[in-house]
């Protein structure tokens, strides 16, 4: 038969009665204390994810952590919050470009626009340089002020026999009524910049809106941009004069 050996190993820290007697007589060293694991301390990743934790994170960080979160209630609240933000953003970013319309679209797109929407209509004709210059400014403002509706229509499609010498013309509508009427490029200053056009549009009413800032902040920003543009143009003229 094979030589089998079995070594019995008791639980760590256990002692026999004989060992206890020998320790009392001083024949064996004192029994070492039983192993006791350190108390469990949760890591920072295991801490409860409350509202304070949410507010301390950026949107990008929350997106990265979303797959690792196990708290169903937190996930539901987080997704609900994100959905609400997306819905509000969709309400604000309604436009963002100059919309071409025809004569048959005018009532629906302009006169019947929602009461909280300002509509800027540019009457133009292809091939007229002044129309192209104003259109550039209007296109830039449409991108900047997405809660204001900008539309363009060929002048004679809107008003039959409208004189070409009157284009470009800007009409401003709100709640179905005309609030402003600007005939010709000269209405917007010598250079017709987006800043100059914005200042003219906001002189009497808060026509321009980005959907986020209050009317006072929008008008203040328009004035600030206009001043900065005038100063920049003046410095450019001085540089040109000195180079001559």
Which helices and strands appear, and what pairs or packs with what?
Layout: H1 17-24, H2 51-55, H3 59-65, H4 72-92, E1 98-100, H5 106-111, E2 118-124, H6 129-144, E3 149-154, H7 155-158, E4 169-174, E5 177-183, H8 194-201, H9 215-243
Parallel strand pairs: 1-3, 2-3
Antiparallel strand pairs: 2-4, 4-5
Protein name: Phosducin domain-containing protein
Family: Belongs to the phosducin family.
Domain Phosducin: 50-184
Structure overview:
With 244 residues, this protein is α/β, with parallel strands linked by helices. It has a domain at 98-239: Glutaredoxin. It is built from 9 helices and 5 strands; from the N terminus they run ααααβαβαβαββαα. It has a 5-stranded mixed sheet with strand order 1-3-2-4-5. The radius of gyration is 38 Å and the shape is rod-shaped. InterPro entries: Phosducin-like_chap/apop_reg, Phosducin_thioredoxin-like_dom, Thioredoxin-like_sf. Residues 29-41 have a biased composition (Pro residues). One of its GO terms (biological process) is protein folding.
């Amino acid at each position: 038969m094979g030589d089998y050996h079995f070594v019995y190993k008791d639980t760590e820290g256990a002692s026999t009665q004989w060992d206890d007697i020998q320790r009392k007589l001083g024949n064996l060293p004192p029994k070492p204390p039983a192993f006791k694991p350190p108390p469990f301390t949760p890591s920072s990743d295991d801490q409860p994810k409350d509202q304070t934790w949410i507010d301390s994170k950026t949107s990008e960080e929350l997106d990265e952590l979303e797959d690792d979160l196990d708290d169903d209630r937190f996930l539901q609240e987080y997704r609900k919050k994100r959905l609400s933000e997306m819905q509000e953003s969709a309400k604000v970013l309604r436009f963002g470009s100059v919309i071409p319309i025809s004569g048959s679209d005018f009532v629906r797109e302009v006169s019947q626009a929602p009461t909280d929407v300002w509509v800027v209509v540019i009457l133009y004709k292809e091939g007229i340089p002044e129309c192209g210059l104003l259109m550039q400014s209007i296109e830039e403002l449409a991108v900047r002020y997405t809660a204001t509706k900008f539309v363009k229509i060929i002048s004679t499609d809107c008003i039959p026999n409208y004189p070409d010498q009157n284009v470009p013309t800007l009409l401003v509508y709100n709640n179905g009524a005309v609030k402003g009427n600007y005939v010709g490029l000269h209405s917007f200053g010598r250079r017709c910049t987006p800043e100059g056009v914005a200042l003219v549009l906001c002189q009497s009413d808060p026509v321009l809106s980005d959907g986020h800032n209050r009317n006072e902040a929008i008008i203040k920003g328009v004035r600030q941009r206009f001043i900065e543009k005038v100063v920049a143009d003046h410095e450019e003229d001085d540089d040109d004069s000195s180079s001559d």
